[in-house]
């Protein structure tokens, strides 16, 4: 379905009632706007109450809901099952809200996951300032991981945005990271992101590398990132990781990382990082004897300007070992 007029809304009877099955390499819904001319479906598009089901055991290229150049949209109360990408926001700019709210998602039970596959992708239009704007992601739940398979590369992947709020989401089971803030190859700015009260749960049985990954060395902004009360469970490499030269001005309050298979927190790069409070409990579940609760540097690169206040570290599970608290 191609929507190219303002206010084009589609309302199903419910995520367990109205089902749309779509083949690979197409979009089930394509919401086509024009942020420059403010024409087509730029304003007021809505998709709610559907169950989107991709075809095949491992989709490659299909998108359930593709939003192109929208200033406002609401994608709410849907179900996404077996997808390459569930939702894509491509260069969706403007002062109005793009709401992604109360959706369920379940990736294919296959391995390995398709590179770049994810529940939600928020990206720019290619230029350094052609980012998406004013994105709100609330109370979504799901991921991959049944039977030890992840089925998706990322849960939420952000490569270009200005002003984004994530709250009360539960994402689990992704190959690389449940939440990834990564400067793309074109170097689009990514800044002003607020993440609060989310649970990011990489599954150790599925080999997930990170719960939260912040990474970039393109020279574009990757800064003004605020985390408040987030929880990370597991993480084969690290529960929470910052790497590269771009990340800057990161404030982390009340972070809890629990049962990491590798490090609890790893700072391999970044500038001006502050960590206040929080609990790091049980790391090195893989029993390598080399993992730590908070690691600064990776032997080659490291952060610049890190302040840590009032963080509690403890080992409570007898099967988990740790080389050190700080390393």
Quick structural summary:
The protein is mostly beta strands and 327 residues long. It is 0% helix and 50% strand. Strands 1, 4, 5, 8, 11, 14, 17, 20, 23, 26, 29, 32 and 35 form a 13-stranded mixed beta sheet that branches. An eleven-stranded parallel beta sheet has the order 2-6-9-12-15-18-21-24-27-30-33, with no helix packed on it. Strands 3-7-10-13-16-19-22-25-28-31-34 form an eleven-stranded parallel beta sheet, with no helix packed on it.
Mind explaining what this structure looks like?
It is a single chain. With 327 residues, this protein is mostly beta strands. The chain has strands at residues 2-3, 9-11, 19-22, 27-34, 39-40, 45-48, 51-54, 63-68, 73-76, 79-81, 85-90, 98-101, 104-106, 118-123, 132-138, 141-143, 154-158, 161-167, 170-172, 177-182, 190-196, 199-201, 210-215, 222-228, 231-233, 238-243, 247-253, 256-258, 263-267, 271-276, 279-281, 292-296, 304-309, 312-314, 324-326. The mean pLDDT is 89. The radius of gyration is 19 Å and the shape is globular.
Q: Which keywords apply here?
A:
mainly beta; about 325 residues; single chain; eleven-stranded parallel sheet
Backbone structural class: mainly beta
Mean pLDDT, to the nearest integer, reads: 89
Termini separation comes to: 53 Å
Number of helices: 0
The major pleated sheet works out as: 13 strands, mixed
Sum up the overall morphology in one term. globular
Strand content: over 45%
- Which regions contain 5 or more consecutive residues with pLDDT less than 50? none
The gyration radius over C-alpha positions equals 19 Å
The level of helicity is under 10%
The tally of strands reads: 35
